[in-house]
Amino acid sequence: MSRMQVLHTESKRETSKNVDKPRVFTVWQKSSMGFQGTDGFSVYSDSGRLVFRVDNYSRRQKYLTKEIVLMDGDGKPLLCLRPRILSMHDRWNAYKVEECGHKQPNSKLFSMKRYSNVQNFDQTEVLQRNYTDNSNPKLMPSFRIEGCFKKRSCKIYNSRGDQVAQISRKTTGQASVLLGNDVFSLVIQPGFDCKLVMAFVIVMDRIH
User: Whole-model pTM?
Assistant: First the structure.
């Protein structure tokens, strides 16, 4: 085997290892645009690369929020999030960006809501369409979020009970100093859509 073939094989093995590893992100609740007084999200990989951002974010009352757009690090829109105004459970809907302006009845990627209308009840659930019956796809529970998002201590599970992601306080330095709640860690297990999980984080921030 030539040296080039050996290097190519080792590269493929390294890539495979990285695919099998959990993805670790640092989430900063600040717009990457850096304007004074602006809200937003900047999400960095463990190598320091900006991978997701939200620049049009506002923590105003829900009825004043039209939509929130999740973008990749280069500013390309990925998902559009909209609140359902008349909802006892703080429901939010997610759409593909191109469908956000002219939503069709079955165009939602997911709906997300508080599990109970009791305000201090933190569990949240995600509903996605079940396409087993193509003639009448129904929204079915697909993920649940347990724990306390305000304290940056919660886990996301799929419908089988497998842990998909975990949110925790961010520490820094050898002394493991806890950072403020505006910076936290997001760990996503292999095989799950990172942009979808980040959309869950944004909605949780609005709900809680």
Answer: 0.80
